[in-house]
Amino acid sequence: MSKEQQIRNTLTHKFFSGNMPSEFIDFCLAHGRIRHYAPKQYLYFSGDEGTTVYFLVTGRIRLCLMGEFTEKIIRVLSPPVFFPEVILDGKPYPHAALCIEETEVLAIDRQTFSGFLEKNPTVLWVFYRLLALDLRRSYRQIKNLSLGDARLRLGAKLYALAHVHGQTSINGVLIAVPLSATDLAGMCSLARESVSRILGELKEENIIQIEKKIITVLDLKDLRSWIHKRAAHSRSSIG
């Protein structure tokens, strides 16, 4: 099977739940360019001119908000996914995109892409549903960060990561993204020491296992129960 046919099959069956018309697939193949990136290589930085939209075909990408001395991980992308959704407004990239591993993307010029959408407005509904899902995810993250204590924040993040990046293993659900305590601290706006302590508690309660930055949730029901208990404690503390 040729590379173009592989990309066509991926766009047709994996992206957007297979809901895109053949015209959209043909457009992407005609105007897109396959790009390869090495681990720790950036696709773009926050504030760069938003000239390109991407379809992540293989690999994983970390989206980060970067300050002068700090970095906050806002999301880890696994294929298949289109990003960054907000770039269609023609403004600069709102975050940086860093490759975690060997990565392959299909890149399309933003103006060319926007022109296709303007001429094919029915396709916009698929993008609207994608944006709505992303916005709901952002609301949930804001809620966890603003209303929950440290344990609730970390527990909710692990639960979300297990659903997005989880792979069934003999021990439970393996989060297929290497994550250090520093990585999780950035995701949850917590101190690394706090994350290490809470991870230790979860290990002692046989809710997770950790081996070389790979976290396995032994039972999602147990983790969910642990989160609900922390949520109830937070509400009672506020009251």
Describe the protein's architecture and organization.
The chain has about 240 residues and is α+β, with helices and mostly antiparallel strands. The protein folds into 2 domains: about 5-140, Jelly Rolls; about 150-239, Orthogonal Bundle (Arc Repressor Mutant, subunit A), CATH 1.10.10.10. About 45% of the residues lie in helices and about 25% in strands. The strands form 3 sheets. A 4-stranded antiparallel beta sheet has the order 1-8-3-6. Strands 2-7-4-5 form a 4-stranded antiparallel beta sheet. The chain has a 4-stranded antiparallel beta sheet with strand order 9-10-12-11. A hairpin with a 2-residue loop joins strand 9 (about 165-170) and strand 10. Helix 1 (about 5-15) crosses helix 2 (about 20-30) and helix 5 (about 150-165) crosses helix 6. The protein starts with a helix and ends with a helix. The mean pLDDT is about 85.
